[in-house]
Amino acid sequence: MAKKMTKKERALAAIKFKTVDKIPSSYRGLPNLSVRLNRYFGFEEPENLLKNYKRLIDALGADFYASGSKICKFTTYTARYTGPEPQKPYIKDHANYYQLGANSLFGEGGKGETSMDYDVVADPPLSNLEKVSDLKDGFLTERLSLFNFRYFDNKYGSNDLNYEKIIGSSDEFICTGNLAHLFMICWALRGYEQFLMDIAFNIKFAQKLINEVAAFTIEYTKKELQDYGNAVEYFGTADDVAGQYGMLFSPDIFKKYFLPHYKELISIVKSHNVIFSWHCCGSVHKVMPMMIDAGIDVFDVVQTSAKDMELDNIYRLYGRDVCIHGGMDVQNLLVFKTPLEIRQEVKKVKDLWGNRGGVILAPSHEALPETPIENIISLYKELNKL
């Protein structure tokens, strides 16, 4: 039996397909679910997620408190943005697309404890452009002047979690990966439907926009890692190029127009010995082998409710090629099934992967506010059984 590991040792071993003392795990949930859990465990100021996140994962028996794309949500850092703030009715969005000139509005759904707040991209600034020549060369890279790369700020504004205090931690990763969503930034600036129309009928325009976004992302990442690459440990990005039943556009388009930029980005990140994690929801089989070949270390979030994304299939196809982070379905399993069924799904993971590494078990995204508390507790209780 492997010796007892620290949380970070356990996760690093899993990512590198080395023997672990037990399968590492993370918790991630939308704010109102986390508040409900904090109340259940009797924490003071349950609405203060930053104050209570370590207490929560300790109470659950999880190793990390993750976001949708970072293994450690609250130890995520970005270069300091010094540009203009959004003007009402627009807001700062969770992905920081406002820093690139995109607009978002506040939205909410549900009621009471199971309500959720979200931001929705609106009024895309490039929506009215028609010709490639309308798209100014370097219109995004010129915005690099709006960032002060001498500062590496905690994304959630915590002074107590200054990155210098996290260096050498045995239970937290220093994470980054700001503004590295190639497809998603394109549609935030152009409009979701319009950008998909560009891909289908105006590919020259789409190519120019992709190249402009990639040029910004790559230069931003170079600058950030130039100063802080010795501190950064985990680079998490997200790009939802797939939906419930398959790709949103042709895999050939991805291969020709997106993949070369991803290869360059991955190479830059890994040249600093930083873990590269790629989040993609949906049924992503058509491009996953390309991204594995390109060098990703972690596949996040593993939406098992999507077509052909069942755990058995994921293990069969990729179980020895890329570490997965996620796998516990938030759409159906955690919301509608019983604690017994949750435990059975966890047992399946343990049977498939064992202690050989290759998996960090977690909800397959931030778990929904209406998720029964007993289902979350059952997940980690079963995982931690000897």
Structural class: alpha/beta
Q: State the end-to-end distance.
A: 11 Å
> Can you name the CATH architecture?
Alpha-Beta Barrel
Continuous helix count: 13
The level-1 CATH class = Alpha Beta
General form:
globular
**What number is the mean pLDDT?**
97
Protein architecture, described:
The protein is α/β, with parallel strands linked by helices and 386 residues long. The chain has a single domain (7-76, 131-383), classed as TIM Barrel, CATH 3.20.20.210. 38% of the residues lie in helices and 16% in strands. It has helices at 7-15, 31-40, 49-60, 163-166, 182-190, 192-201, 203-228, 251-270, 288-294, 311-318, 333-336, 339-353, 373-383, and strands spanning 26-27, 64-65, 77-81, 103-109, 116-122, 147-154, 175-176, 234-238, 242-243, 246-247, 275-279, 298-301, 323-328, 359-363. A six-stranded parallel sheet has the order 7-8-11-12-13-14. The chain has a two-stranded parallel ribbon with strand order 1-2. A hairpin with a 6-residue loop joins strand 4 (103-109) and strand 5. Helix 5 crosses helix 6, helix 5 (182-190) packs across helix 7 and helix 7 (203-228) runs parallel beside helix 8. The protein is globular, with a radius of gyration of 20 Å. It starts with 6 loop residues before the first helix and ends with a helix.
Blueprint (SSEs and pairs):
Blueprint: H1 7-15, E1 26-27, H2 31-40, H3 49-60, E2 64-65, E3 77-81, E4 103-109, E5 116-122, E6 147-154, H4 163-166, E7 175-176, H5 182-190, H6 192-201, H7 203-228, E8 234-238, E9 242-243, E10 246-247, H8 251-270, E11 275-279, H9 288-294, E12 298-301, H10 311-318, E13 323-328, H11 333-336, H12 339-353, E14 359-363, H13 373-383
Parallel strand pairs: 1-2, 7-8, 8-11, 11-12, 12-13, 13-14
Antiparallel strand pairs: 3-6, 4-5, 9-10
